[in-house]
Design a protein that fits this description.
The chain has helices at 25-38, 41-66. The chain has 67 residues and is mainly alpha-helical. The chain has a domain at 40-66.
Length: 67
């Protein structure tokens, strides 16, 4: 049986740990915002640096593919 308890934690074990099932997109967005508020400024900065590095890598790959 694949029931989902009230806290939206999946019961079946074939899903990755930490995966949640949300009732709506709004609930998922609210959870993301709450998680962002829990992070320290240093964690936010490191995360943004990783995102910027990924963006530069993707732009470089796109530039190489466009040649």
């Amino acid at each position: 049986m694949n029931d989902t308890p009230k806290n939206n934690t999946p019961v079946d074990t074939d899903k990755p740990a930490g995966m949640r099932i949300y009732a709506s997109a709004a609930e998922q967005e609210l959870d993301r915002l709450k998680e962002a508020l829990r992070r320290t400024p240093e964690e936010r900065f490191k995360f943004l640096m990783v995102l910027m590095r990924m963006q530069r890598t993707m732009q470089a790959a796109r530039f190489i593919n466009d040649k």
